[in-house]
Design goal:
Elements lengths: L2 H7 L4 E3 L7 E4 L11 E4 L8 E6 L7 H16 L7 E6 L4 H6 L21 H13 L3 E8 L6 E6 L2 H13 L10 E2 L2 E2 L4 E2 L18 E8 L4 H25 L4
Parallel strand pairs: 4-5, 4-6, 6-11, 7-10
Antiparallel strand pairs: 1-2, 2-3, 3-5, 7-11, 8-9
GO molecular function: hydrolase activity, acting on ester bonds; metal ion binding
Pfam family, one: AstE_AspA_cat
Cofactor: Zn(2+)
Length: 255
C-alpha cells in the first residue's frame, strides 16, 4: 500500500492509516485557497506521555528527498509502533504543495517560504504552519532539505544546546550513505564538521514567544546525489536524532 495514496485521498479530520488507528492518524482541515498540507500524527503508546516532535519536508517544492523520507518514516511508524512508543511525531511531508506541483523552489506566488516565518506573512502555507507550531509547542523540530551546491550532508542547529549533540551522530550515521560536507564555510556560513550554528532569518522554526525552546535541526542532503541515497541518509539521520534524544533524556536526571 502506498502511504501517500491514502494521504491524497483522505479529507476527514481524523482518518486512520493502516492497522493502528489509535496511533497513526491523518489530521486535515478544509483546504485554504486550494492549498492542502497533510499532517500525519503518530501517537505514543501512553496518551500524553511522549516527546513531541514535528518533522517537516518539502518547504522548497523542488526538494523531493525530504518528502520521500517522511513517507518512509510514516511507514516505519505504522509498521513498528513499538519502536516509537515514547514519541508523538507530527509529520508534514509536503509544506509547499504548489511549489511541488510546479517543480520549483518557491510557492505559486514566487516566494521562498523558508524566509517568510514570523514576519507577518500572509501566505496561506505560512499562516497554517505558524498556527501549528504555536498550537503544538514541539519539544523538537526537524526540517529536511536538499542543497544542490553541496557535495555532502550537513545541518543547522538552533534552540536547545542538545541540537548540536544530536546532529553530530546523525551526520555520522548518514555518512554510510552519503559523505559529510566538511568545508569550513557552507552556504555562506562558518561550519565545523558539517554543523552550522548560524542561519537565515525567516526559516521554519519555533514561535519566538515559546518559553521552553525546543531543539531545532535542519538536515541537508546533497541534491545532486542519487535520490535513493538522499532518502536513505535522511531516514537514518532522523531515526538517529530520535534515538539520541531518548538517551539524552534518560541521562538528564543524573546530570
Amino acid at each position: 500500500m502506498n502511504t501517500f495514496s491514502s494521504i491524497h485521498l483522505a479529507r476527514s479530520r481524523h482518518t486512520p492509516l493502516r492497522s493502528e488507528p489509535s496511533r497513526l492518524i491523518l489530521e486535515s482541515l478544509p483546504p485554504e485557497q486550494g492549498i492542502y498540507i497533510p499532517k500525519i500524527v503518530s501517537k505514543p503508546l501512553k496518551k500524553g506521555q511522549g516527546f513531541k516532535f514535528g518533522v517537516f519536508g518539502g518547504i522548497h517544492g523542488d526538494e523531493e528527498a525530504g518528502t520521500l523520507a517522511i513517507q518512509e518514516l510514516i511507514q516505519w511508524a505504522a509498521e513498528k509502533p513499538e519502536e516509537l512508543h515514547d514519541y508523538e511525531l507530527h509529520f508534514f511531508p509536503i509544506c509547499n504543495p504548489t511549489g511541488r506541483n510546479l517543480g520549483i523552489r518557491y510557492n505559486q506566488n514566487g516566494l521562498d517560504l523558508n524566509r517568510e516565518f514570523w514576519s507577518g506573512s500572509i501566505e496561506p502555507e505560512i499562516i497554517y504552519l505558524e498556527s501549528e507550531l504555536r498550537r503544538e509547542q514541539y519539544d523538537g523540530i526537524i526540517a529536511l532539505h536538499a542543497d544542490d551546491d553541496s557535495d555532502g550532508c550537513y545541518g543547522f542547529v538552533r534552540g536547545a544546546l542538545l541540537s548540536e549533540h544530536l546532529l553530530e551522530p546523525a551526520l555520522k550515521a548518514a555518512s554510510d550513505e552519503l559523505p559529510r560536507n566538511v568545508l569550513p564555510i557552507i552556504d555562506g556560513f562558518l561550519a565545523s564538521q558539517g554543523i552550522i550554528k548560524e542561519g537565515y532569518n525567516g526559516i521554519l522554526s519555533a514561535p519566538p514567544e515559546q518559553q521552553v525552546k525546543p531543539l531545532e535541526i535542519v538536515f541537508e542532503t546533497p541534491a545532486l546525489a542519487p535520490m535513493y541515497q538522499q532518502v536513505n541518509a535522511t531516514v537514518v539521520a532522523v531515526k538517529t536524532i530520535l534515538a539520541e534524544y531518548r538517551q539524552l533524556q534518560a541521562y538528564a536526571p543524573n546530570l
